[in-house]
Model the fold of this input.
Amino acid sequence: MTFPRRPARRRLLAASLAILALFLGGCVYLRLLEVKLQLGKFDQYFALRTEEGLTLLCQKPVIRPDDVRWFGVKPESVEHLGQAERWRIRWVKQRPPESPETAEYDIVIELGFADGKLNRVSIPERYFAVMPKAFLVGVIRSFGRGKIDQTGQSVHTSVTAPDVASARPRLAAIDKLLGAPTERQMAGTETTLRYRYVPATRESRVGTFDMILRFDTASGALTFWQAVTPVGKLGFNFGPADR
Done:
């Protein structure tokens, strides 16, 4: 009886792991697609609380903790409450060396899980001093109309509601919300800001997150917002600026 040589075994193992990764990614993709379909019928599947910050409640949750980790979102802390879990997520902003800041501009959210599924996302009130809640709710709703490119690992959607467009953050005020950008570029009629974040967590395999904001320089209106995660991109187009 003969056995495969070690290099062959390694190739077989690598191929098996690759197939497993694709399979797992496909399962996550199917659940992400289900969430997208639910967001298309927002009022049927979700509820909002706006008295203290903004809390999104999932009526029929489908996303699992391992799905969230697969997206690259790792908890800073986890509190176990019987069959439920409460995650604190904190992304530490990578500050530009030429612009030292004394204020903290880390991004913090809270995730709630019940019976192994994500049923709550909470955002603190302090973020809405500059960014109206109506704007963020409109952005979340627009995900239901987004186009998913599984090959390119991206989701893009257009935010067309007039009330949302009028509530979008302005270039002059964005520093109050996010502080100085990691990188700033001006090209033609547009100003592009890039903010880089690293998750605060003890878990392994942590990647960076980029937030890219594009503004019309003359009016200061936000025209494009993109989140770049370790596994894909999520982009929102807001159309031409109001001049």
In short: The longest strand covers residues 84-93. Residues 11-237 form one domain.
